[in-house]
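Continuing the series of single-chain predictions for the mutant panel. This is the parent chain; the variants come on the following pages.
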Amino acid sequence: MPETFDLPALLAAIATGDQAAFERLFRAWYPRMVRHARHLLGEPDLAEEVAQEVFVALWRRRTALPDAGALPGYLHRAVRNRSLNKLRGPAVTSIDASVDDRVAVAPTAARDLEEQELATAVADAIAALPERTAEVFLLSRDQGLTYSEIAETLEISVKTVETLMGRALRVLRETLRPRLTGSG
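Parent structure:
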């Protein structure tokens, strides 16, 4: 996070409707959320739209925000879920967005099962990637490393990281698209 601040105090201020506090949070996290969505979607405009939607939903739910320790995971999951919804199509997106905008929706057993199956499919798709491609993908996704940091860690060029990441995303999109669109 580029700016340091007392996250619990910032979240408490946001919960009371403090727009300046929300703006600080937005400025700190928005670029990272756009980057995450762009990796998932491959389209900059769509990635910005997803990140903006996540922050709009966050503002709407400001009185029931996750605690500071859970916020990074919450934002990550929200971007991932909205990105997957974009891949599924507009009808599903509008339905899921309305569900996402509710404050405390208890997950159903069917949704939990669907998410477990999707998580398993994603894990299987990552495991099927060539070793170096999977390694680059996981360093980016799981550890949040930049392309430069991955290149330095693996002692390869940034261009190679970009190529491997592009390959990983393309294969994962192709592999997971039938599952996400309901045609597989």
